[in-house]
Automatic annotation (TrEMBL), chains A, B:
Lineage of the organism: Bacteria, Bacillati, Cyanobacteriota, Cyanophyceae, Nostocales
Name of the protein in question: Histidinol dehydrogenase
Species: Richelia intracellularis HH01
Catalytic activity: L-histidinol + 2 NAD(+) + H2O = L-histidine + 2 NADH + 3 H(+)
Gene responsible for this protein: hisD
Binding site residues for NAD(+): Y127, Q188, N211
Residues that bind Zn(2+): Q256, H259, D358, H417
Reported function: Catalyzes the sequential NAD-dependent oxidations of L-histidinol to L-histidinaldehyde and then to L-histidine.
Active site per database record: E324, H325
Example GO molecular function: NAD binding
One Pfam family of this chain: Histidinol_dh
Keywords, comma-separated and alphabetical: Amino-acid biosynthesis, Histidine biosynthesis, Metal-binding, NAD, Oxidoreductase, Zinc
Amino acid sequence: MDFLKTTDQDFAAKFSALVNNRRESRVDVSVAVQEIIANVKVRGDEAIREYTSCFDNHSPTSFGLSQKAITYYAQQCSADITTALEFAAERITAFHQKQVPQNFVYTDSVGVNLSLNWVPLSTVGIYVPGGRASYPSSVLMNALPAKIAGVRRIIMTVPTPNGKINPAVLAAAQVAGITEIYCIGGAQAIAALAYGTASIAPVDKIIGPGNAYVTEAKRQVHGTVGIDNIAGPSEILVVADDKNNPEWIAWDLLSQAEHDPCAQSILITDSIDFAQTVIDSIAGILPCLSTRKVADASWKEHGAVIVVDNLDASIPLVNQLAPEHLELCVDDPHQLAQHIRCAGSIFLGRYTPEAIGDYVGGPNHVLPTARSARFSSGLSIYDFMKRITYLECGKQSLQKIGKAAVILAEAEGLPAHARSISTRLQ
Amino acid sequence: MDFLKTTDQDFAAKFSALVNNRRESRVDVSVAVQEIIANVKVRGDEAIREYTSCFDNHSPTSFGLSQKAITYYAQQCSADITTALEFAAERITAFHQKQVPQNFVYTDSVGVNLSLNWVPLSTVGIYVPGGRASYPSSVLMNALPAKIAGVRRIIMTVPTPNGKINPAVLAAAQVAGITEIYCIGGAQAIAALAYGTASIAPVDKIIGPGNAYVTEAKRQVHGTVGIDNIAGPSEILVVADDKNNPEWIAWDLLSQAEHDPCAQSILITDSIDFAQTVIDSIAGILPCLSTRKVADASWKEHGAVIVVDNLDASIPLVNQLAPEHLELCVDDPHQLAQHIRCAGSIFLGRYTPEAIGDYVGGPNHVLPTARSARFSSGLSIYDFMKRITYLECGKQSLQKIGKAAVILAEAEGLPAHARSISTRLQ
């Protein structure tokens, strides 16, 4: 854990190191993934079957789950979890419905008709990881915006090592209305989604997190299909004054740290005493935490505490760090928030722990990491829509705008461009 | 040129081959580009200077152009071109201003405050190619949406082989209000934009087309900065009945073909006679066209004519081809257009040649190629904005939604998540 004070002589250098520290441990699996994709492209289901048997120790007769099977597994999920998923889905739906964009159409002063329509993608594939990171909440966060956008076919792949299915993931899929589910994973699942096989029709876009193989496979099929942002290890930045309960802040920092040894939790505060109390709190909590191994590694290796003179001084630091999650645990969080231009999602006030947003807040929990909040955004219904623009000139209106276009086409050395217009002006 | 009829026995196979034909000739320059980027990262301006001297045969004392120099070169551009650029800028601005999205804020029934703000990126770099593809119109199409989005710093790099500057590009930059211009290009320019050097501050996102080195460099710096969609060779699909002037349609098809030997022009018509007349027209025009070498290569290699029984039968074909540009040269183009779900930009009626949209229509001419209109869109102000979401619970409202989140956190095996909420519920 780094402890920085803005009054330190070497603060600028230390902060810059913190900003530029890349936490991702990239393993180069590109050749292995290339081979898997090429094999699936040529041999389809047969290749998928071999990889699934080999990597997941699982040999189903069919990869797809029947409606009966989906319902059966979903019902294995405890009622209180299913109810919580339904509650979450309702809130996520409400927030994402507010995002529905407006088409527009107008005729300009010279009589040209112009318009723009938002159109949903036709078909989307959601990759859900197996094992520990197989989160039912992520199924909702990925599927519901696609559904609200109007995507007609939303399918899901999830690896089932040893044939073991996570009932909560199936319950989430059922809550989200996903009816097409394949029990496959890894680069082979990504290849199937991108190119299709005899039993799996291809999709237009693949979303959802995965391991190094899945991520590399998404990179390789990008262009053939769309993909979402590549997610790095999770991050939280908490800006807190000394009026907070230090234990609450300790839990917030640990909630991010427990995700991944590469996760990062940073506290910015204007009180050195408060900083120390939070650090002590974390030390006190860690030994009793069941996820302590991961949380401890993350906090030790990537955690940071920054003491500033006053909380306004945190603003440029936050914008440079461009955190995935930002908590503003202060009296007037709105005053600070209006100056923040780079953050994925902001949690305002002392009663909005980031974890509430992971599940039931409403905004999406799929957010830009590794400073990409400088140029990208959390998942939204826009990720499942595209825009088509329309232009319509008539004989008269083309006369009014055509000449300028002819001049520019000629200037660019494109005579057929020029003639396609001028021939209609005669 | 392929000639297909839907009544052909082997139509499905031939059409599928057309859909899946990848026209991009990818040269693997990844290692060379890696080296250039690494060199610029470490040696900054010195490396840029060496590459510029070596690749562009140009050794300026400074890469940046002064205001005086920008004005000087812009004034070398002829007045009618500058006036046409101003006219185009006005129309492009009007269309993109209609895209300005709405923030939203609401308090839900349990008292939770939720909101979403659209925030412009801080700084964007536009790459403008040198040589033949150095299009002033593209400067406008890239810069104006960024300006309307509210990006404060928009910079441009343009290689100037042998120190030669394209006045029309500088005039376009001036019309678009770009005041920071560097005369560098290639992978070294992309590296400078992504990582910065002593003389060039880094940007948050890089946009604009380039050669294989530029494209690969953008791929490699993606993540450190945002990038736009990778553009492939241009495409046009014209759906036309036999009431069109065949020569007009011939020019439209050639206007795309003259861009690049890998460009693609496709005609779909319900009249075999009309198809033949257009083909003859093209053959007649080509010998006199100054861009005939490129246009002829593209038409011969990638051109296609598809004869359908009736124009409604073109709809599924169009949606599968997902063309960058679609012209609907028919009596009622709106009737057809409402069924098109995959196309970058649609040009309606007999008086809207695609080229009008390249310059002065208003909608953007940076559009998805290679069937990516299935999942992506043309350039817009949204490409220069990001969304921040906000969540604010109070003591009471957290009580109302917290329990469900605790249940889900526990189900996902994340105890610190659960405790960060439950500790605030007591």
